[in-house]
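Troubleshooting: if your tokenizer reports a length mismatch, compare your output against this known-good record of 120 residues.
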Amino acid sequence: MYGLNDNIDLSILNGSELTQVTIGLYQVAFNFFKNVAVSVEGKFVYFDGETEWTWEHKQTSCFVAARTVALLGATIQSFERNTDGTLVLFFSNGHRLTVLDPTKEFESYTVTWPGHTVVV
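Known-good structure output:
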């Protein structure tokens, strides 16, 4: 899928507390309180307040993914979305996670919560 439909209500993200970061070879999953999750297979940019770090499934990307554990316990204060599939999450600790949809051919990320699955 490519893009993020404007009709999809993602307000469930607001106020969600990050409780777990799961790092895999081809995916990083950000799991929030109340069974909300953002699982990234494509690409994301993590801003830690000083430096931006880009993750995509490459062998050395685990070090970038590991940096995102600094988000644990932080809540999503707000988010921005774009029809090109970009989803930007702004956290209570001043950090930012920008999830990208770089390809039309493959799934880039999913957002799930009870009863809903959004595939981008």
